[in-house]
Amino acid sequence: MNNIHIKRGFLPLASLPAFEAAARHQSFSRAAEELNLTHGAISRAVAQIEERLGVDLFVRRNRRVYLTRAGERLLRTAETVLQDLDRAVEDIHRHDAQSPILSVSCEPSLAMRWLMPRLGSFREQNPDLNVEMHMAGGPVDLLASGYDIAIRRRDFGLPDDYYVTLLWAEMAGPVCDPDCWQNILACDLSNARWLHSRTRSDAWDIWKKASGFKGRPASEQYFDHFFFALQAAVNRLGTAIGSLPLVIDDLAAGRLCAPMGMAPTGVDYVMLSLDDPKKDRRITRFAHWLAAEAQATEASSKAVIG
User: How far, CA to CA in Å, does 48 sit from each of 71, 77, 246?
Assistant: First the structure.
């Protein structure tokens, strides 16, 4: 085999970013600014690739550069290669136990009403670990999505190979503004407008079955998401089925009351991971913090609703 063919078969990969930036901008100067290099460094990098390939990648006219057909072809490939490398490095970095990033997927209502208000304390205790939040509910493919862990309301089947860490058993009951309960509803749930959500359309039925309540609402209103129904209750628009821990902060602050108490729904909140949490220091730290916050929430719940 001819040696020149061997030489031309291997491009100087370190020069590809310089070529890609120069080709994208069609300017060596702008490429140099982007990459924090000198104009000469960009020119030398491009010259290295042209020497290896034996073809011109740019046509230089009037202090401007334009891609040749060979340059356009190489640019398409270089963009794909560099993007693939970036994704691979990010994926390796993210799923390395030494990575400073922990990717967490969480039920939207739980994330907004309970988890995110508490993440500041985790950050203070773990300044070297950044939690990357993703909001999603229901079944989750941890491998395909790239999430390190997922926090879910366990109302669906789980793969056998997932590690499942129990966080708490859900409790739920009617919640409304305390003043409305006393002065407008006259302490009678049948006088209330019942707030429903399409994402948990059976919430009232589950609570009625668990509590034995036989009454009916004075009126009803529907919302697209559970979070909106809970916020509507805070805003004195009616009475919603609130679950713990989603309404614990509102109960503790007096924005809501749970006049009928809370009953078990039979559903647990869990943390899901592909690997044993003990094998990844990031997940271990987050799991310990999460467990402590869950215990604090449970203690607060007992103090508020008994």
Answer: 14, 17, 60
